[in-house]
Amino acid sequence: MSPAASVRPIGLQRIGREPVPGAALLEVDDLHTAFRLRNGLVRAVDGVSFKLQRGQTLGVVGESGSGKTVLSRSVMGILTASNVETQGEVRYEGHDLEKLGVKDRRALWGTEMAMVFQDPMTSLNPVMRIGRQITESLRYHLGMSKQEAKEAAIAGLASVGIPAPERRYSEYPHQLSGGMRQRVTIAIALACGPKLMFADEPTTALDVTVQAQILDLLAHQQRERDMGMILVTHDLGVVAGRADHVAVMYAGQIVEMAATADLFADVRMPYTQALLRSIPKLDEASHTRLNVIGGRPPDLINPPKGCRFAPRCPYAQDKCLKEAPPLTESGTPGHLYRCWFPVGSPTVKTTPAPISTNGQPKPGAAKPPAAPTASDSAPTSPIPPPAAPRPAPAPASTPEDN
C-alpha cells in the first residue's frame, strides 16, 4: 500500500469520529422499520432490540417474511427509498447511526460494516469482471493504486478458497459456479476489513456440501479478523453450532432470544418449538413426512391485536387473542420470550388448545398437546460435517464448487 493510502482516514475516522471506549460493537434499541404502500403501512420491523460484541455471532432466525433481511438492511442503513420510515437507535461503537446522513453512512459501508447478500446471481454485476467488482471499494475507501488494488483483490480471492485466483480475477460471474460466486461476494465484503458482517442467507440455492464449506469459510474469516457477525437464516440447524446468541423473529418482532445453548436446552416460545420440529432429522426414515407450521403469517398492515402467533399456535388461549405479550425473561438471565403460556409451563401441559389455525375457537375440547421432547430441543442439523480432506490434485484438475 502506498504511503498516501496508509494515512487516508477510513470508516469512523473519515467522518471525524473515534470508537467510544467500552461501547459494544453494535447496539439496536427499539428499532422500527415500515414501508408506506397504497394499502397502508407495512410494519416489517416492529420494536427490535439487541446487542452484539466484537467477535460474536448473532443468529437471526425465522420464516420468510418475518423481517430478518429488513432488520439487517435497516441496521446497515441501506434502505434509502422515499417510502421507508425508520425509528429507533442504532449505535455502532457508541455512535448513533440514525443521526448520520447518507454520505457519512456510505463512508462506513465496506470499511466498518459489510453485507453478504442472499443471491450472488443478482448481487454481482453480470457485465463487470470479478476483479473490477472487488477493486472498486479498495480504490474508493483505501485510496489504493490500480496495481495495489489488483494484488489485494487476487489475495482476497485466494483467501476465500477460489482456485486459480489470477485467472478468475479477469472472468465474469456467469463463468463461475454458484459456490464460487458466493465466495466472490464474501471476498468483496471482506476487501476493506470490516468489523461487522451481515450474512443474509449466505447458503441459499447451494447444495449441502457447498453450504457447509461457505459457513466454515465465514467462521474462519470471522475468527481471523475478530469480526462481529449477524447470520440471517431460516434454519435453526445452521445456527446451532455457529452462533453465540440466537434471536427468533416472527411478524417483525423478536419472539425469543437467548444464548444458543440456553435456547436449545429450554425452548419457551411455541413458534421456536415449531421451527425445531420442522427440521429434518437424519435418523428418520427416507420420505418421512416433514412437520409443518399450519396457517400463514399475519398481515403486517393490520397485525393481530394479541399475540401475532396465536392464530397458528396449538397452545393459544383467549388471552393470547386479546393481549399482546411483552418480552419476558425466563429463569435464565438473558433468555427472553414473548408468550403468555410458554412451552413447559403447567398451563401448556394440561390445557387443551382451543384455537384453530384460522384464529377461531374450536367447538370442542381438543386433546392436550404433548410436551416437548428431547428431540425437539436438540435437532440434528441437515448439514453434514465436512468430509476428511483429500490429497490435493494437480493444478490442471483443481476442483471447483458445484
Which helices and strands occur, and which strands form pairs?
Elements: H1 3-7, E1 26-37, E2 40-52, E3 57-61, H2 68-76, E4 84-92, E5 95-96, H3 102-108, E6 113-116, H4 120-123, H5 130-142, H6 146-159, H7 165-168, H8 178-190, E7 196-200, H9 208-225, E8 228-233, H10 236-239, E9 245-250, E10 253-259, H11 260-265, H12 270-277, H13 318-322, E11 328-329, E12 336-337, H14 346-350, H15 374-377
Parallel strand pairs: 3-8, 3-9, 6-7, 7-8
Antiparallel strand pairs: 1-2, 1-4, 4-5, 9-10, 10-12, 11-12
Low-confidence segments, given as residue ranges, are: 1-6, 352-399
Main beta sheet strand tally, sense and closure: 8 strands, mixed
C-alpha geometry: globular
Give the full name of the CATH homologous superfamily of the largest domain: P-loop containing nucleotide triphosphate hydrolases
Average pLDDT works out at 85
- Helix-strand pattern: HEEEHEEHEHHHHHEHEHEEHHHEEHH
Largest sheet, order of strands side by side?
Answer: 6-7-8-3-9-10-12-11
- Helix and strand content put the structural class at alpha/beta
Gyration radius (Cα, Å) is 23 Å
Number of domains: 2
Query: Count of helical segments?
Result: 15
CATH class of the largest domain: Alpha Beta
Helix content: 25-40%
Within the CATH hierarchy, at the fold level, what is the topology of the largest domain?
Rossmann fold
In whole angstroms, how far apart are the ends? 35 Å
What is the number of strand segments? 12
CATH architecture of the largest domain: 3-Layer(aba) Sandwich
